[in-house]
């Protein structure tokens, strides 16, 4: 295979096109996560921020602003804001999920303690608000503070829906819209707002981010059952944590009496024995729950791409569209 | 004793003077802590918000605005914002401290779980930012987002300073300024800012809040050793949690070899036996550490009152001054 056969992934292409801006974002992030008084803070955040995240969310903000012809400096602040909010939620998620690994590395709550994860997460939230105020746009503030509230609301809803076999696809979608899509859509929307784009374009950017985020999370939930384990995530985490994701919800809707008893035992009562995860996956396969979920993810990716048509044609627009394809291509 | 001998406490007097505004704040709080999607949120927050807190911080904002002749509507939003930030930090503190009681009632993390406390705290933080954006004042946003970062920084610093016998009075003051005084000073400062008061008056309000907050926390730390237990706080919590507060720092500075070994055993190594708390209190008494700490608290209360002299004379100013006296009067 020659060089021309090496596939450059869409998010890597976008990263190249936004190279200078991303470097500025990284510098700003490093600068603002510092703390004169509490060295524990940069220790914890460096661990996460340097851990090889793809910077997908900040890239969306940069790309959205660029696609709308923005030439000012504030998309850098907004991209850093979005990454700070994301990192803060990761820190708190790890406490809530009692996770031991994230992106293939031990989590902060394991390396330090839950206390540090909670408080450093709070610090990053506060810093994100400081950063966004620097853009002097009330509209941006409304969007991002609203998104933060929606994220927390989605996480709480997920908490109360866990272990509840009556969780519907609607509730699932609400959780996903909150915990994942709200930040994606805010990331793209503020890119358009800062560029003073037309209302239809701003709406299209919101719709793109929303659909992309939903698709992204559904794929994530699928990979929890059929991933290779190379993503640093363990197969079956959601099953073990009794989190009802779309594949399980679809299978439970079609369960016969024996299967229902199995779900009650493993999810509702949390009694999980050796072999139960394999058995769960077999039930999912039997009811086509994984294949059906894949179709839903593809559908959301299509919605994301369709929304982009309201934007003027450009290389960046094409890259955003390719990202929507790539998000579901993670499923091979 | 006739009615005229019944003492109305200064914060109760202030609450009466601000009755209408406080009612509006309470309505706004109840309105904004609701969540259409996640009923767990108002459950958790109601438990805290209704738990009979004195609303001291929001009263400070209302009083500061009033003392500066403010007649607009936004002091209500700001007061609610300040209470939301306070409530969010309480929820997260209880997780960090693994507390079982707050204000004499079981904590949210005990009634629900740590997860709910973390996520509902995040929700309240986000809602506080939404609320403050409604005031359309960039300066207010800078002050309150800055205060939120300082609070988290102070909490992280406290975490890393715990169990460290070399903690100095300077570090202690830095922790207290962060975890407690930052919100007091922001609460009073934004009251002046929203009223468009003179820079000297705004500075004086900041100084008052800062000194009041420091005094308040020092008294709290003293009550942890000499309180009656009627505040819902257990005597010796800080000692048990190995948190070095001013009385301990003062006693450790004067420790002889035997006492030093005692502090190493109980605080650094965390080996605490029956009778150790009583022994610790005896050492504190021996070195006048409690009496000396009381003098420091009184000194900060005096600073708070002195700052108020930059404000025009008014009934409200007198009440704020009385509150500074009352904060230390809690020590009897």
UniProtKB/TrEMBL annotation, chains A, B:
* UniProt function note: Supplies octaprenyl diphosphate, the precursor for the side chain of the isoprenoid quinones ubiquinone and menaquinone.
On whether Transferase is a keyword of this UniProt record, the answer is: yes
Q: Where is the signal peptide?
A: none
The GO molecular function terms of this record are: all-trans-octaprenyl-diphosphate synthase activity; metal ion binding
What keywords sit in the KW lines?
Magnesium, Metal-binding, Transferase
Main EC class the enzyme belongs to: transferase
Specify the protein name.
Answer: Octaprenyl diphosphate synthase
Q: Supply the CDD domains for this chain.
A: Trans_IPPS_HT
Give the cofactors, semicolon-separated. Mg(2+)
Keyword Metal-binding tagged? yes
Task: Cite a single Pfam family from the UniProt record.
Answer: polyprenyl_synt
């Amino acid at each position: 295979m020659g060089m021309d056969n090496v596939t450059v992934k869409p998010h890597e292409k976008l990263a190249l096109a936004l190279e200078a801006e991303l470097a500025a974002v990284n510098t700003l992030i490093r600068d603002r996560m510092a703390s004169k008084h509490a060295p524990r803070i940069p220790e914890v955040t460096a661990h996460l921020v340097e851990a090889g995240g793809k910077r997908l969310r900040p890239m969306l903000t940069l790309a959205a602003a660029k696609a709308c012809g923005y030439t000012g400096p504030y998309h850098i602040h907004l991209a850093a804001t979005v990454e700070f909010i994301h990192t803060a939620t990761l820190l708190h998620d790890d406490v809530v999920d009692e996770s031991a690994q994230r992106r293939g590395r031990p989590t902060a709550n394991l390396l330090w303690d839950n206390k540090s994860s909670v408080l450093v997460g709070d610090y990053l939230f506060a810093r994100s608000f400081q950063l966004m105020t620097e853009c002097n746009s009330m509209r941006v503030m409304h969007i991002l503070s609203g998104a933060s509230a929606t994220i927390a609301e989605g996480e709480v809803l997920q908490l109360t829906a866990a272990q509840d076999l009556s969780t519907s696809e609607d509730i699932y979608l609400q959780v996903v819209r909150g915990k994942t899509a709200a930040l994606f859509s805010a990331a793209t929307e503020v890119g358009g707002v800062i560029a003073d784009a037309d209302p239809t374009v701003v709406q299209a950017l919101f719709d793109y981010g929303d659909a992309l985020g939903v698709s992204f999370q559904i794929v994530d939930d699928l990979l929890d059952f059929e991933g290779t384990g190379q993503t640093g995530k363990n197969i079956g985490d959601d099953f073990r944590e009794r989190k009802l994701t779309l594949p399980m919800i679809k299978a439970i809707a079609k369960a016969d009496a024996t299967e229902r008893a199995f779900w009650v035992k493993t999810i509702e009562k949390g009694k999980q024995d050796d072999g139960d995860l394999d058995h769960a996956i077999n039930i999912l396969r039997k009811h086509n729950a994984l294949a059906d979920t894949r179709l839903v993810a593809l559908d959301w990716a299509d919605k994301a791409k369709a929304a982009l048509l309201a934007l003027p044609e450009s290389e960046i627009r094409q890259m955003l569209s390719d990202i929507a394809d790539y998000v579901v291509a993670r499923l091979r």
